[in-house]
Amino acid sequence: MNELSQATQLILAIFVPGALVVLFTRVTFNQWVALAITIALFTASVIAGYTREWLHYIVDAASMTVGFWYATRMMKKQTSQDETTLSK
Question: Would the pTM count as exceeding 0.90?
């Protein structure tokens, strides 16, 4: 990832972690597990040396937080729809 420009890395840091949390939530049906998997992936990328700047760490964390918020909201909406469907 060193050959990508700073702007490209920052744009990816804004969108990718949040999207991964939502994707993993859809796969695992648990937003906590999805968050843990995403954190593990980004920890591995930091250890491997793909990310070196504090700004990217902060943006990654903010993106994961927004993704977790959205995944939690999505799961609550799905649960309420399932309960409504079962009560009919």
Answer: no
> How many angstroms separate the CA atoms of 46 and 10, rounded?
15
Q: What angle do CA 48, 50, 54 make, to 5 degrees?
A: 110
- Is 31 in contact with 68 (CB distance < 8 Å)? yes
- Other Cβ atoms within 10 Å of 36 Cβ, number: 14
- So what's the pLDDT on residue 87? 73
Angle at 42 between CA 38 and CA 45, to 5 degrees: 145
Alpha-carbon distance 41 to 37, whole Å? 6
Count other C-beta atoms under 10 Å from residue 88's C-beta. Answer: 4
